[in-house]
Amino acid sequence: MRVEAGLTSVLSGWPPPVLDAGGPFAQPVALLAWALLIGGAVVLIVVLAALAVALWGKPSLRRRLGGDRAIWLGGVAFPGVMLTALLIWGLRLTDDLQATGPRAGEMRVRITGEMWWWRVAYLDDAGRTVIRDANELHVPVGQSVLLELDSADVIHSFWIPNLAGKMDMIPGRTNLLRIQADKPGTYGGQCAEYCGGPHALMGFAVVAHPPETFARWQASRRAPPAPKTQPGAELFRSSGCAACHTIAGTEANGLAGPDLSHVGSRRTLGAGILPNNRGTLMGWIADSQSLKPGNRMPNYKQLSPEELATLATYMESLK
Ligand code: CUA
């Protein structure tokens, strides 16, 4: 799947991402999806051919089509065998892909579904949070990553179709999912369980880096944040943004909304729905309710264009 202009879409392009495995945990799912697609197409062609025979075929052929033998074979035996085989295939696949606890040295990330965005916490071996982020996950290529999925409110479903099957996020419970990207790139994802309001606008991006770039990314996130003493920081405080958002190294430590410590380096805004740039930052702050109706951030229409620009400059500086 392509992430074009910051907009993640799991629907565009060919092949669709569920048929285009980008790693070992998506491969068996893609194989099953191809089998369903091709098998379904063959069944459709056979049914249409039978319909043509029934309408316009020679009387002898039509008699055979309507005979007991054809009905028992095509209407009972074939679907019975095929559906049973698919059931067994699906159950075994579910079993095979069931992730258990972390493997030695494996990267662990906790992702929490929120109405309508994703809280991301990179964990150390002891399960302590070392990096906080939102709506975007950075991984090294060729390595499996264990995701610990839960929810803060209602049931969401985490789905990066290129990298793994989908997994529900259920309040009060942790579901494990392994992903692995074999090629560098950005893979789009989408909440796959209706969770009210702007459910359809709850996107996600996985950015897979070559090992060296990933190490650099990780180091930059772990380094103590640079002091942020620009005019934007003061406006951020006085406008009340800090009640909901955290910016590491500042007094802003709100937890209701996404962590903004590195918002300037994110691909998207509003959980995968807009490219992240100056214009969209200003538009989002002023009128996020038009861009993502029902989301939990109020509009800040009282800010002047100059103030919006000041805040956007500040957001852009948070790399
Ligand atoms: Cu979250 Cu649908």
UniProtKB/TrEMBL annotation:
Residues of the Cytochrome c domain: 227-319
Catalytic activities: 4 Fe(II)-[cytochrome c] + O2 + 8 H(+)(in) = 4 Fe(III)-[cytochrome c] + 2 H2O + 4 H(+)(out)
Origin superkingdom: Bacteria
InterPro entries: CcO_II, CcO_II-like_C, Copper_CuA, Cupredoxin, CuRO_CcO_Caa3_II, Cyt_c-like_dom, Cyt_c-like_dom_sf, Cyt_c_oxidase_su2
Transmembrane segment boundaries: 31-57, 69-91
Subcellular location(s) per record: Membrane
Extent of the signal sequence: none
S-adenosyl-L-methionine is among the record's keywords: no
Main localization (coarse): membrane
Entry keywords, A to Z: Copper, Electron transport, Heme, Iron, Membrane, Metal-binding, Respiratory chain, Transmembrane, Transmembrane helix, Transport
Bilayer disposition of the protein: Multi-pass membrane protein
Domain Cytochrome oxidase subunit II copper A binding: 104-220
CDD domains in the cross-refs: CuRO_CcO_Caa3_II
Pfam families xrefs: COX2, Cytochrom_C
Protein task: Subunits I and II form the functional core of the enzyme complex. Electrons originating in cytochrome c are transferred via heme a and Cu(A) to the binuclear center formed by heme a3 and Cu(B).
Family listed: Belongs to the cytochrome c oxidase subunit 2 family.
Name the record gives this protein: Cytochrome aa3 subunit 2
Organism: Novosphingobium anseongense
